[in-house]
From TrEMBL:
Entry annotated with the keyword Nucleotide-binding: no
Pfam families found in the cross-reference section: Rieske (PF00355)
Keywords: 2Fe-2S, Iron, Iron-sulfur, Metal-binding
Entry superkingdom: Bacteria
Name under which the protein is recorded: Rieske domain-containing protein
Any one Gene Ontology molecular-function term assigned to this protein's record: metal ion binding
Residue stretches making up the Rieske domain: 13-122
Alphabetized SUPFAM superfamilies for the sequence: ISP domain (SSF50022)
């Protein structure tokens, strides 16, 4: 019989309300992630399509830099794809895979999200309560029984 190692409990952190991100748009958040007892800057992008949300680290696999255009823009003209503002790589927003551009076949790093009572929550990581960026304050999700 195989023993399964205990996993870290899934503590959800509220990042924003679902309606703070229009459908077919994305928004970035600069958070503090706790690793080995230290708070590290962690920049993520959340894309919304209807009631679905998809999260990725804000780091293009082409050159390892943030992929925004400036002005918090992360999508192509019709909002159907994530797009890097540096050299135009296009990504499937549901999988994070680059489908056109200089890093075809590579993928954005996913961030685990859930929607709880119209709040977008991150799970699977430990975040600092005091955020790096004052505008992007996270809190434990009270509705998840934690
Ligand atoms: S850095 Fe994103 S396409 Fe080059």
């Amino acid at each position: 019989m195989t023993e399964i190692a205990p996993t870290q409990p899934l503590v959800p952190y509220v990042v924003c309300g679902l309606n703070e991100i229009p459908s077919k748009r994305a928004k970035d958040f600069r958070l503090g992630r706790i690793e080995n007892g230290e708070v590290k800057h962690w920049s993520i992008v959340i894309y919304r399509l209807g009631q679905q949300v998809y999260g990725y680290e804000n780091q293009c696999p082409h050159e390892g830099v943030g992929f925004d255009f400036g002005g918090e823009r992360f999508v192509n003209d019709n909002g159907s794809l994530l797009m890097c503002g540096k050299h135009g790589a296009l990504f499937n927003p549901g999988t994070g895979e680059c489908i056109d551009g200089p890093c075809v076949g590579q993928s954005l790093k996913p961030v685990n999200l859930v929607v709880l009572d119209d709040d977008v929550c991150i799970v699977g990581v430990e975040l600092a309560g005091d955020d790096i960026d004052e505008d992007d304050e996270v809190s434990l999700c009270e509705d998840a029984g934690v």
